[in-house]
Amino acid sequence: MVKGHDISIIDLRNKTNFICDYFIICNGESQSQVCAISRSIENRTIEKLQEKPWHVEGIKNGEWILIDYVSIVVHIFQKKVRLYYDIESLWNSKKMKDPN
Questions:
Q1: What pLDDT is recorded for position 89?
Q2: Where are the chain's structural domains?
Q3: Do residues 58 and 66 touch, judged by C-beta distance below 8 A?
Q4: For an engineered disulfide with 27, which of 14, 58, 77, 78 has Cβ 3.0 to 4.6 Å away?
Q5: Measured CA distances, 87 to 19, 25, 93, 100 (Å)
Q6: Residue 92: DSSP 8-state
Q7: How far apart are the C-alpha atoms of 71 and 32, rounded to whole Å?
Q8: Burial zone of 45 (CB within 10 Å; 0-12 exposed, 13-18 middle, 19+ buried)
């Protein structure tokens, strides 16, 4: 199994004007790892929950891939891109760290 690093979960349920309930954010060290993490998430979600993403963006460049499951949006970054955008701070929300 391919795993992302530095996993954060941001609870957006109490934010106004949000369609989704959670952001899940992680990073990989390279373009190929970010793409592998994305494929792993999609495959496991289909396998375990029979759910396909509603929308996926960023596969071609592999710097930041967004997988939209409507109520949950997964952001997979290359580490340098994650640090640059720092979306955890942008939403300044209650963060829940990786439960593992």
A1: 87
A2: 5-97
A3: yes
A4: 77
A5: 17, 9, 10, 22
A6: T
A7: 27
A8: middle
Q: What confidence category does residue 74 fall into, taking pLDDT thresholds of 50, 70 and 90?
A: very high
Residue 86's SS3 state is coil
Amino acid at 92: N
Q: pLDDT for 48-72, tens place per residue?
A: 999 999 999 999 999 999 999 999 9
* φ/ψ (deg, to 5) at 83: -65, -40
CB atoms within 10 A of CB 8: 19
Q: Do residues 72 and 45 lie in contact, with contact meaning Cβ atoms separated by under 8 Å?
A: no
* Cα 37 from chain centre: 10
Q: State the Cα–Cα distance between residues 100 and 59, nearest whole angstrom.
A: 27
